[in-house]
Amino acid sequence: MALWPYVETIVTLRDEKNFTFREIAEWLNNNGVPADHNSVYRIYTKGMPQPEADGAAYDDEQMERERE
């Protein structure tokens, strides 16, 4: 997967900086790495149990709503 080399950055931006998946994709694009929020979500949740991945999606939706 094209984003695999950036997984640590994605996790840091998400877990420590509270970026949304869209914000992470934008950050990656601004730094020369083509990405969209869906691919960021998939790499972030790869290997997570489905309930945990669903929770990450729900949390992301809430964060996006708060920032509107």
Protein architecture, described:
- The structure is a single chain.
- The chain is an all-alpha fold and 68 residues long.
- The chain has helices at residues 7-15, 21-30, 37-45, 50-66.
- The longest helix is centred in the last third of the chain and has 17 residues, at 50-66.
- The radius of gyration is 11 Å and the shape is globular.
Topology order in helix (H) and strand (E) letters: HHHH
Category from helices, strands and their pairing: mainly alpha
What percent of the residues sit in helical stretches (DSSP H or I)?
A: 55-70%
Number of strands: 0
Describe, in short, the structure shown:
With 68 residues, the chain is an all-alpha fold. Helices cover 66% and strands 0% of the residues.
SSE diagram, text form:
Elements lengths: L6 H9 L5 H10 L6 H9 L4 H17 L2
Using brief descriptors, characterize the structure shown.
68 residues
